[in-house]
Amino acid sequence: MHSARKWVVTLLCVGNALIFPAFAGPQRVVSTFLCTDEYVYRLVPREQIAALSYEALDRRPVVSTIADAAKGMPTIRPSTETVAALKPDLVVMYAGTNARLHLNLKKLGIPVLDVPWANSLTDVRTITEMLGERLGARRRAQALLAGMDKKIAAARARAPRPPVSGILYQPNGYAGTSGVTDEIMRLAGIVNAAPQGALTRTGTLPVEAVIAAAPELLILGGERSSGSARAYTILHHPALRALEGKTYMEFAVLTPLLCPGPWSADAAETFGNLARKARKLAPAGVAH
User: Fold this and answer.
1) Under a CB-based contact definition with an 8 Å cutoff, are residues 119 and 127 in contact?
2) In a designed cystine with 180, which of 54, 77, 228, 260 is the match (CB 3.0 to 4.6 A)?
C-alpha cells in the first residue's frame, strides 16, 4: 500500500513538472537605460541579453560599473525602431524614462518591465528581489544581496566612532544629502554635514555654504584631473583653500552611486577609508 502511494505521488510530481515547467525567464531581454543595464547585466545570462543601452559601455566619461565587463555586448540608442527590431520578449526600462518609447512598445504588444528608483537600501533589496523573480534569476539576485550585506557589514564594523562630519561635493555643486548615498555614508561612519537650508532650488550647495559648514571631511566627487569641463570647475574653486587646517579633502570616483543598486555598497569601503583618514589627518589640514 505504501509503495503504491509512493508511485502515485511520483506520477503527480512528474505530471506537474510537465504542466508547469520551471520558470526560465525571458530569453531576449533589452535594457534601455544605464540603471537597468546595471541590473540586467548582473542578473541575466549574457546569451539572453539582446541589447543594453549605449551608456553601459560609454567612456566619455565612464558612468557605468560594467563598462569593462560588458565589453563586446550589443548596445543601442533606444528608439521604437531599434528596440522592436531586436524582437525582445521583455524590455526593461527605468520608471519615468522615455515615455514615448514606453507607450509605443505597449502599443506593439512588447512586454515592458518598469524598474522604480531606489531611495534606500531597503528599496534596493525589494527591487533586486522583484527583478530576480521577473527575470528568472532568483539565485543571482540573492547572491547580489548577500554581497551587498557583506560589504555593508564590513564598513559598519570599521566605521570611526563617533562618526566624522562630511560633505560629498559633486560636479556643478551638487551635494549628496539623501537616498542610498547618504545611507551608505552613515553606515561607513560619516554624518552628512551638508546644510539643507543652504541648498538652492536646483539642489546645489554654494561654495560659501561648504566653507561655513567646515566639515571634518570634504569628498570631491570625481577625478582630480577632470579636465576643463565646466561642471568640475567648482570642485577646484580656490575658495576651498579656506578649509585647509580644518578639513581633510580628497577626490574620489564614486561611479557605483550613480545608479542605486546592490553594487552601490562598493562605495562603502571608499567612504570608510576617507572617514578614517579624516579622523586621523583633518587637524593637519592635509589636502590630496
Assistant:
1) no
2) 260
